[in-house]
Write a structure and sequence with these properties.
single chain, mainly alpha
Length: about 160
C-alpha cells in the first residue's frame, strides 16, 4: 500500500510540472543515462547535475534516475549481452542472477585499459544501450506528455 502511494505521489508530481513536453522528456532521458553504469548509488544525483548542466527539467531527471536505480541488475545484464553480441565474444554473465554490482564496477574500470576484457564488453554494451534507450525514452515520454498528460492526471487522482 505504501509503495503504490509513493508511486502515485511521484507520478502526480511529474505530470503536474509546468515544463513543456521537451524539457520533461529530456529530463527523464538524461536522468536514466547513469543507470546503465556503475555509479555507486550516485545515479540520481548525477542525473540532476546532468539535467541542470543541459538545461532539462531536474524533477523529471530525478524520476528517471530513480526508475533506473530499481532495475540496475537488468540493465547491467543487458550491457553484457549487447556488448558480447556486438563484439562477437563470450561473456562470463549468462543469466540475470549472475550480475554482481562489484564485478560490474571492476569489469568497467579494467575494460577502459584493455579491449580483451569483459569490462570492454560491458562498456560497449552500455554505450549502445544508452543511445537506444535514450531515443526510445525521449519519444515515449514526449508523446505521453504531449497527448495524454490531462487524461493521465485525471486517472491518477
Amino acid at each position: 500500500m505504501k509503495i503504490t502511494r509513493i508511486i502515485k505521489y511521484n507520478l502526480l508530481r511529474l505530470f503536474r510540472l509546468k515544463s513543456g513536453p521537451h524539457q520533461v522528456a529530456s529530463g527523464v532521458t538524461i536522468g536514466f543515462i547513469p543507470s546503465w553504469l556503475p555509479t555507486f548509488g550516485l545515479g540520481p544525483i548525477l542525473s540532476v547535475g546532468m539535467a541542470r548542466f543541459l538545461k532539462a527539467n531536474t524533477v523529471s531527471a530525478l524520476v528517471g534516475g530513480v526508475l533506473g536505480t530499481f532495475i540496475w541488475p537488468l540493465l547491467f545484464f543487458l550491457n553484457y549481452k549487447v556488448g558480447s553480441l556486438l563484439l562477437d565474444r563470450n561473456t562470463k554473465v549468462d543469466e540475470l542472477d549472475e550480475v554482481e554490482y562489484i564485478d560490474a564496477i571492476e569489469h568497467t574500470y579494467t575494460g577502459i585499459v584493455s579491449s580483451h576484457t569483459s569490462g570492454f564488453i560491458f562498456l560497449t554494451g552500455a554505450m549502445c544501450n544508452i543511445v537506444i534507450s535514450s531515443i526510445a525514452i525521449y519519444i515515449m515520454v514526449y508523446i505521453m506528455f504531449k497527448t495524454y498528460r490531462v487524461r493521465i492526471l485525471n486517472r491518477i487522482r
